[in-house]
Amino acid sequence: MHLPVVLSIALAVLLCCSPVSAQGTVTDTEWVQRAAQARLIGIVDDPEQVTILEFFDYACSTCQQFHVQRGDSLRSLLEEEGVALSMHSYVIPRLPRGYPAAEAALCAGAVGGPEGWAAMHDRLARNTFAWRREGAGPEPFVRWAVEFGLDEALYADCLHRDVPAPLVFTDAQLAARFEVAGTPAFVFIPGGATESAQIVSFFGNEPMSRFREALEEARARAR
After folding, report:
1. CA-to-CA distance for 153 and 208, rounded, in angstroms?
2. Residue 53, in any domain of the structure
3. Residue 91's CATH number
4. Backbone phi, psi, residue 215, to 5°
5. What range does the domain containing 184 cover?
6. Quick check: is 75 in a domain?
7. Per-residue pLDDT tens for 172-194?
8. What is the rounded average pLDDT of the residues 91-119?
9. Is position 45 within any domain?
């Protein structure tokens, strides 16, 4: 794994753009940029900050368990330790059932910002069988978006035209470059990392003690 290439892709996903203007007609590129920004948590201007990339598949039962059992604990850890988190969809190629949900969350982020993304992400993760039971069509996603106060027309158009598809595919490329073996997966990138050996990763529904260990290990490797 060539670290400079991997990190360049990761940074392109994390910081792909400067904030876009809310005025005038919004282009598809700007929608994608907004979606990418909406799923970033705790990013600060600190060269030593550790960033965690989380790869999540909405059709993955273990991902659902992690979100329900440990999602809040992870957010508390991020705030306590000053760690950044970037969420990425990883639709397992042999089980692409999570693809519509990945786009549903990203469209919510594009239209509703971080709050829209967080609300849809939580609903999708906690109600996997609800949207799969309805055939993964747009109806439940649009219904939930309206419930969250998002613009129905803008949201439905985003889904209909597959606007966030580039992000879904970029996430898949990123997962492959970090050799993600399963979901949920967590990749710890210390600030200033220059070698792949400085990166720590694991996957599964692990306790917070495992996250603390990985965080300390990543910080130690960066020294």
Report:
1. 40
2. no
3. 3.40.30
4. -65, -45
5. 3-10+29-40+67-222
6. yes
7. 999 999 999 889 999 999 988 87
8. 91
9. no
- H helix or E strand, kind and range, residue 161: none
**Within 10 Å of residue 219's Cβ, how many Cβ atoms?**
18
The winner for highest mean pLDDT among 4-8, 17-21, 92-96, 147-151 is: 147-151
Judged by average pLDDT, the poorest of 10-14, 58-62, 153-157 is 10-14
In the chain, the number of structural domains is 1
Is the sign of the CA dihedral 23, 28, 32, 38 positive or negative?
positive
> Is residue 188 included in any domain, yes or no?
yes
Q: Which among 26, 10, 198, 8 has a CA at the least distance from the CA of 110? A: 26
Full strand arrangement of the beta sheet holding 200-203: 40-41, 84-89, 51-56, 185-189, 200-203
- Contact indicator for 87, 93 with CB cutoff of 8 Å: no
Please report the pLDDT score of residue 102 as a whole number: 94
How far apart CA 195 and CA 172 sit, in angstroms, is 22
When computed from its CA atoms, the radius of gyration of the chain, rounded to whole angstroms, is 17
